[in-house]
Q: What sequence folds into this?
């Protein structure tokens, strides 16, 4: 089953390599989507893929790389789009 969602990650998540770690993690799991920095200091990730890989990634977002300090993740499940393409950093 394909799962899809969007997460807003808050805490010390910019300037610590979060986006590129998120990119590498998502690609290693075969997910599609994107990750980007937001003006308010948060990071947004839009992602979809097989249920187990999706859940693994969502769990990873709650900690991120060792250089990050995640304080909160807002998550909303979405309908799969099937046109997100290879996971990438969005600017």
A:
């Amino acid at each position: 089953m394909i799962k899809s969602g969007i997460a807003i990650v808050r805490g010390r998540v910019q300037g610590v390599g979060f986006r590129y770690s998120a990119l590498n993690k998502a690609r290693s799991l075969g997910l599609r989507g994107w990750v980007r920095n937001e003006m308010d200091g948060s990071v947004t990730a839009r992602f979809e893929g097989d249920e187990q890989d999706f859940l693994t990634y969502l769990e990873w977002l709650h900690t991120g790389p060792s250089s990050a300090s995640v304080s909160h993740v807002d998550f909303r499940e979405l309908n799969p789009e099937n046109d997100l393409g290879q996971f990438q950093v969005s600017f």
